[in-house]
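BUG: 3D viewer hangs when loading the predicted structure for this chain

Environment: internal workstation, default settings.
Expected: structure renders.
Actual: progress bar stalls at 90%.

Input used:
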Amino acid sequence: MSTPADGPRRVRVTSPRTSAARRPSTPAGTREIDEQTRLGEVYMHSLIQSQLRLALGVVGSAALVLGGLPLLFALIPTTRRLLIFGIPLPWVLLVFVVYPVVYVSARIYVRKAERIEAEFTEFVGRQ
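Structure tokens produced before the viewer hung:
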């Protein structure tokens, strides 16, 4: 039977730093937003305005393209009866214009919204 003196001796290792962990310093811009100061409100207002401009631009462009289809059919009645590969033109446009326009609009919106947020985060982080 072994005694405690025969085995390896246990050693407690401690850090020489005894103070509590310090919070990482936050950039001034982030602090302004967190504390809801007037400058923080200006930062948030600019972000919201940028996002609103983007949303209105994308929705307006998509509405212009998609709203033009009924206008096309109303102004040129022969387009309602036109057949492409035996399928009426309005149905072809629904499949090959409407869905791709909505999909592309959504992709553009997401990509640009992420870019706006990244630029905002970078700007606020530098302040």
